[in-house]
Amino acid sequence: MSVTTQTRSAQKTLAPWMRSLVGGLVTALPVILIGIVILLFAPAYLVRVAFAAYVNLLIVLGLQIFMGNSMVANLGQGAFVGIGAYSVAILATPVAMKKLSIPDAPFGLADIVLHPALAAGAGLGITGLIAALTGLVIARLSGEAATIVTFSLMMVVHSIFIQWTDLFKGAQAFFGIPQVVGLATAIGAATLATIIARLFKDSASGLHLRASAESLLAARAFGVDVFRLRLLAWILGAVICASGGILYAFFMGTINARAFHFELVMTTLAMLILGGMRTVSGAVFGCIALALLLEAIRSVESGIAVAGFQLPPLLGLSGLAMGAIIVLGMTFRPRGIFVRLELDELLWRLFARRQPRAITEGKPI
Amino acid sequence: MLSVNRLSVHYGPIRALDAASIRIGRGEFVALLGPNGAGKTSLISGIAGLVRAQGRVLFEDREIGALPTEDRVRRGLTMTPEGRHVFANLTVAENLRLGAAIRRDREGVAQDIEKYLGLFPILRERNHQLAGTLSGGEQQMLAIARSMMSRPRLLMLDEPSLGLAPRIVAQMFDYISLLKEAGVTLLVVEQNVMQALKHADRAYVISSGIIRHEGKAEELRSDRRLIDMYLGN
What does the angle CA A96 – CA A247 – CA A259 come to, to the nearest 5 degrees? Predict the structure, then answer.
């Protein structure tokens, strides 16, 4: 028996969902390890930087679930991150604080306060509901229409945050949100989201959705209900994006509508494109790579000393770099770093290839 | 088994199919012939529920004209879209799983996959390869095996010989005949008239959206006038 068939049969002993679970854990391993190193050794400012990166990872994963499987564009993720963040801000901020910041909030919201965990649950629920309603339209779209509608969704939600000052404080910062989570929670959430994204991709729903991305007609001919699956992926992706927003609010204690706008959308989209949107590993590694790169650029941006020579501040360099990454990535590696196979699948192949003699044994070529 | 009564399909102002009526008995192999743009694909797409159509579609004595595609597939009516149409970026194994999209019996699906990998051993060898890397003939085997994964009672194939080398075309029709022997009723759209008539029991000839002729395959084969008029060879 050749090694390939042996490994195949070894793979067969695991149920498919178990294989996806293990695969998801392998993909999430760098996320966990980097997080532990930062938790143990890094200074406080770096913990804040890392926390923001983990929130971005959650958003990129949310984006991957919908975009990566259906291959329908989504520029609306900022809306759901914001809805998640504002939900907990409004529901979990102590009443005394709200009397100061949003005394005229409608529905008596200024007078109630929920336990942070309950508020987080409500935030996820509200996001799921709004995603289900918007998904009724978006799940029927593709191509330019999807790009425009999802982008408009973000603009509409942003306008509501800015204009409805009684509830969202408008362009001012919403402060006083209980700071109840730390980096460890973000690491846990990112790990969980990585596994969920992988389980979804490998599930029957994920497979059917990926098939519909290739040929809508052929997938429908086999009885795939493309609308229902896109709606499912849209809601799941939105809820994971919202979880990023919720953690962000509970960590920072202060949020501002600007944080959920254009820059966030572009950054997370660049991460997904760089990594490869068809794979969960692409989402994870695109996020890690771009987060590291942007942090390095930011340190140059503020002006550093090289060999005793003080460089002037180069403001706007990070924006420029991000544009350059999108352009270069799309030009030279349009399908990203992880094109089709996940990290664990690549490792598995590498391992199998290490034993070429055994593979050819008993199998005439 | 299938009775289509005055089915019409419009794309905007264009009438692609005009009150077409056909009947197919259980276990029959029926060919649907006609030139490019005659309305062949519109007819089977209308039967499958992939395009909006007016008229009646009775499948096993039940009106299915208002059902969504997935419910028609669930009742045993499957269509394989034009040409090979395998999902090139999915593996052979994933393509086969996809054919069983409407099924919930995991064990039965696994058994069927084994069955078709046994029937087409080359697919077993290529099980974890992308379907796009298979040769034309292999892709066609995959397309047929995938169609069978939904356990259809009536299978509609749209131009299964499209883009295949002549030798492979003959082989492919042999496979299709195997399906008929296995008890599957077949409606096959073809431009390769002679091959289709060689294997089919009956045929319909369609042109400009209208059914022009219906008859036994062997009679049609010898009717040069009809073939010249509508089928162009």
Answer: 85
Among residues of chain B, what percentage have pLDDT more than 70? 98
Specify the range with the lowest mean pLDDT, choosing from A4-18, A128-142, A233-247: A4-18
What token pair was written down for A94? 């102590």
Which tokens in the block code for residue A191? 């790990």
Interface residues of B toward A, Cβ cutoff 8 Å, are 48, 50, 68-70, 72-74, 78-81, 85, 87-90, 94, 97-99, 101-102, 130, 146, 150
Count of structural domains within chain A: 1
Subunit contact B87:A211, Cβ cutoff 8 A: yes
User: Mind telling me how many Å the CA of B86 is from chain A's nearest CA?
Assistant: 8
In this structure, what CATH number is given to the domain that contains residue A64?
Answer: 1.10.3470
Contact list in A for residue B85 (CB cut-off 8 A) is: 215, 218
Query: What residue spans define the domains of chain B?
Result: 2-231
ipTM of the modeled complex: 0.84
pLDDT digits (tens, 9 = 90+) for B54-65: 999 999 999 999
Query: Would you call A340 an interface residue with chain B, using a CB distance cutoff of 8 Å?
Result: yes
The whole-number average pLDDT for the span B148-162 is 90
Which tokens belong to A152? Answer: 């408009």
pLDDT at residue number A71? 93
Domain that holds residue A336: 3-360
Structure tokens at A341: 């196979």
Average pLDDT of the segment spanning B152-158: 93
Q: In this predicted structure, what is the pLDDT of residue A14?
A: 77
Are the Cβ atoms of A214 and B81 closer than 8 angstroms? no
Q: Domain B2-231 is of which CATH architecture?
A: 3-Layer(aba) Sandwich (3.40)
Q: Is the pLDDT of residue A125 over 50?
A: yes
Put simply, whether A228 touches B (Cβ < 8 Å) is no
Q: Let me know if residue A257 belongs to a domain.
A: yes
DSSP assignment of B49-66: TSS--EEEEEETTEE-TT
Query: Does A40 touch chain B if contact means CB atoms closer than 8 Å?
Result: no
- Angle value at C-alpha B86, between B200 and B100, nearest 5 degrees: 85
How much is the pLDDT for A79?
96
- Whether residues A222 and B74 touch (CB distance < 8 A) is answered with no
Residues of B in contact with A338 (CB under 8 A): none
- Cα-Cα-Cα-Cα dihedral of A348, B104, B74, B139, to 10°? 20
A224 to chain B, any CB pair closer than 8 A? The answer is: yes
Position A209 pLDDT exceeds 70: yes
Residue B84, pLDDT score: 61
Say if A365 falls within a structural domain.
Answer: no
Minimal CA separation from A17 to chain B, in Å:
13
What are A104's two structure tokens? 């005229």
pLDDT confidence of residue A363: 41
B157: β partners: B80, B188
Supply A7's token pair.
């490994």
| 8 Å CB contact between B15 and B212 | no
When the pLDDT of each residue in chain B is averaged and rounded to a whole number, the result is 90
State whether B98 and A215 contact (CB < 8 Å).
no
Q: What mean pLDDT is predicted for residues B198-220? A: 91
Residue A346 within any structural domain of the chain: yes
